Amino acid sequence: MITPMTKYSFILLNGDHHALLDSIQQLGLVDISRSVKPVDENSRMLSGEIELLDGLLQGLRRVQLPAGTQPLPYEGEGSEDLVRTAGGTLMMHAETENKVKSLRKSAEEHKIWGSFDQGILQELSEAGVPIHFHKLSEKMFQESWEQDYALSVVARRKEGIYFVVAGEDPLPGQVPAPGTNWRETAAELLLEESRLKKIQGELAALKQQIPQLEQLRREAYAQLDVYLAGAAAAPAAENTIVTLVGFAPTENDAAVSAALDAIGVFYFKDAARAADNPPIRLQNNKFIRQFEVLTDMYGRPAYDGFDPTPFISIFFLLFFAFCMGDCGYGLVLVIAGLLLKKVESFKDLAPLVTLLGIGTVVIGFFFHTFFSLDIATWSIFQPIKGLFLPSKIAGYDGTMVLALVVGVVHLCLALCVKTYEQTRTKGLGNALSSWGWTLLIVGGTSVGALSLAGVLDKELTKWIVIALGTVSALGIFVFNDLKRNKLANVGVGLWETYNTATGLLGDVLSYLRLYALGLAGSMLGMAFNNIGQMVLGDGSKYYLWIPFVLIVIIGHTLNVAMAALGAFVHPLRLNFLEFFKNSGYEAAGRNYNPLSK
User: Fold this and answer.
1) What tens digit of pLDDT does each residue of 481-502 get?
2) I want to staple 368 with a disulfide (CB 3.0 to 4.6 A). Which of 16, 51, 388, 399 is the partner?
C-alpha cells in the first residue's frame, strides 16, 4: 500500500533555511525535495569523505588477521587521526604482506641453492669458469649430462631438478643467479614478518574502531543530504526569501506540525497530489514487506498508481516454488536462509530466502518430489496420496496444465487490476475499453471453466457468452473513447483486438517456462541419482558408498544452485513483463528519503 503524504511548503527569509533544515533533520520525518544536486567544492568534499570512509570500512572488514592476533593499544585522538591512521595502516599492511609473500617465495628458492659467497662466483666468472644455475622438469633432464659437462645436481623437487654447470653451458632451463644467499634472504624475511605482525596488531585495534567509523560515515552522509536539500531552496522576491517543499506521511501530521510550530517557521500544508511528485513510501505487513526489494528492482509506483508488492509476494513465491518443485531443495533453502541471518551483509535477505524455501517445500510436496525421488511411491504417504498432483490432467502432463492455469489466473488478475485502477483514476467513462476487454477475457474464461466443470449447461452458457460478447464489443469498438468519432473508435478497436489477441496468446504460453524449468531440474536430479546408483550397485561393497554419497551431494548441490538461479530470474520476468504490462503498472515514483541524523 502507498502511504498518503502531506505536502509542506515553507517560506523563509534568505539564510534562515539552514536552521530549518537542521531542525527537520533532527525530526527525521520530512523528505525535502532535492531538485538540485550541485557539484561544487563543498558537495565534492563531502562526497569524497563518504567514499573514503566507505573504502576504509570495506578494507577493515575484508582484511583477514591470523587467529589469536592481539590488538595493540590505540592511541589516536579525534576522528581525523582515526581516518588517517586507518588509511595508512591498511596501505602498510598491503605493502608488507605482499613483500612477505615475495620474500617467502625467494627464501624457498634460495634455500635450495644454499649459502654461498657472491665474491667467489665473481672471481670464477672473471677466470673464465662462470657458474650457471638451472631448473628443469624431470622429463627434460638427462642423466648423461653429468658425464658430458661440469654439472652438479643441487636438489630434486616435485617442480623439477635444480642443478649448476661450471664453464661451457649449452643446456636448457637456465635461470638467473640468486642475487643473495639463503641466510641473507631469511634474515630479511624475519624482519618483515616481525613488522607485519606489529601492523596486524594495529589493524586488530582499528577493527575495534569500526563503529566509530560507521558513525562518522553517517554524519558525513547527513551533512551531504542536508546540504543538497538546502541547495534546492528556490530564491524569490529578489533573493530576500526562499521557498522549500517537503513531504511527510499523513499519519505523522500531528508530530510534524507540532515540531514546525515550535520552530516558528511559516508554512502551508495540504494533501499531496501526483502532480507534486511526492516520495513513495510503501506500507505493508511483515510478509509482503519481504518482497519490496523485488518491487524496487523495477521501480516504485507513481503516487496515484498502485503498489504491486502484494501481488508479487503471492505469485513470485508460487512461481519460484513451481520452478524448484522439490521439497528436498526447499529444505536446503530454509536451512540456507537460517544460516544467512548470521551473515551481516545478507541478513536482510535471509527472511525472503526462508520464505521461498518454505513455499518450495509445500509445492514440492504437492508435486510429490524429494531430491528428485517420487515420494508418492513411498508406503508412508499412501494414506494421503490423493493430495498429490496427478501425473495426467485431461490427457496432458499435470504440471504443464497447472502452469497454464496459473498463468491464465495471473493475467486475468492483471486485467482486473488495470480496469479498477483506470476507473479509479480516470473515471468510468474513460475506462469503458478496459471494462470491455476484462469482461470478454476474464468473463469468458470464467464461463468456460464453469461450463467445463458442468456447473453451467450449454444453453445458459450460450446466452451468457452472447451477452458478454455484446457488452464487450460496445466497450471495445464503440465507446473506447467518448470524445472520438465512432468510426475512428471502431478502427482503433480493431487494431487493439489484433494486438491483444496475438500478445495475450504469447503471454499465456510464456508461463510454460514454469513447467519447463521444474522438469529440467527434476530430470537433472534424477540423472545424478541414477549415476550414484550405478556406482553403488547392490550396496554389498561398503567402500562404494563413499563415491555414491559424493556424487549425490555434489550433483544435487549444483542442481540446487542452477535451479535457484532460474527460479529467481524467470518468475521475476513473468511479474515484470506479463503482469506489469497487462495491469498497466508504471514505475514513476521516487523513494521516501527523509532528512535525518
Assistant:
1) 777 777 787 887 788 888 877 8
2) 388
